[in-house]
Amino acid sequence: MASHYSFKKCDIGPDLFFNYRTIVDEEKELVVRDTPGKGKGLFASYNIPKGSFITEYWGEVVDRETKDVSVGALKAQGLRASYFAQMGNCSFVDATHSECLAKYVNHSCQPNCKM
Questions:
Q1: What's the mean pLDDT when you consider all of the chain?
Q2: 110 burial via Cβ count (<10 Å: 0-12, 13-18, 19+)
Q3: How many degrees, rounded to 5, is the angle at CA 36 between CA 83 and CA 58?
Q4: What Cα–Cα distance (Å) separates residue 47 from each residue in 4, 109, 114?
Q5: pLDDT confidence of residue 93
Q6: Which residues contact 7 (CB under 8 A, 6 or more apart)?
Q7: Residue 92: how many CA atoms within 13 Å on its side-chain side?
């Protein structure tokens, strides 16, 4: 997956941004499934201890302008779901078209994970 980012528009340097997947020492048993009226959610097959690393949010790193254009294009196509995690003041990780499981975390009335 290609990534692009303009640091000219931002006060945060490139050393704070990573666009690769980290190696995880333990494979988590996670499953994405539909939830009534809420879309998809990420579920674990066992209790995960508080403070544990579960999965990494990854995708294309984009600036605010690119994110806004992408959201507009998705809405124009009639799609309601987009998955962006804000990183710093003006950059976002776009997981909309990735296979990133983390994009389904905390789509709940009672979220229990934090980024």
A1: 75
A2: exposed
A3: 20
A4: 37, 19, 16
A5: 92
A6: 13, 14
A7: 18
**How does pLDDT run across 43-71, given as a tens digit for each residue?**
888 888 888 888 888 899 999 999 999 99
Tokens 């980012």 found at: 5
- Contact, 115 vs 103, CB < 8 A? no
Identify the bridge partners of residue 93 per DSSP, sorted by sequence position. 61, 85
Give the pLDDT confidence of 25-46 residue by residue, as tens digits.
345 688 888 877 778 888 888 8
The two structure tokens encoding residue 35: 């939830």
Residue 32, token pair as written in the block: 């994405």
Identify the CA nearest to 6 among candidates 84, 92, 115. Answer: 92
HSE of 111, CA atoms in CB hemisphere, 13 A? 8
**Predicted TM-score of the model (pTM):** 0.66
Q: List the structure tokens of 29.
A: 């048993």
